[in-house]
Amino acid sequence: MKINDLIVEKKQDVEWANGYENIRDKFETAIVLYNARIEAGLTQSELADLAGTSQKTVANIEKGDNVTIDKFTEIANALGKRVKITLA
């Protein structure tokens, strides 16, 4: 099951959906990085090596932990991607 499908399924639970709204931005950032890494065919360790960081840092971001914009940008650049931030 893909992560996006899991989110849709879990949102049926009102309590889970309310909790998700509190962490949505972190979670969406985690999903974006995960999907980009998988699309590139890289493991967390391989991406970490390309970005000059640790596998643990990549794993933590993919879990939704906090990360600086600088670190996220370095990792995105290692994937050949740019970071684009919008406020909605």
UniProtKB/TrEMBL annotation:
It holds the Pfam family HTH_3. CDD domains: HTH_XRE. One of its GO terms (molecular function) is DNA binding. InterPro entries: Cro/C1-type_HTH (IPR001387), Lambda_DNA-bd_dom_sf (IPR010982). It comes from the Bacteria. PROSITE patterns: HTH_CROC1. This is Helix-turn-helix transcriptional regulator.
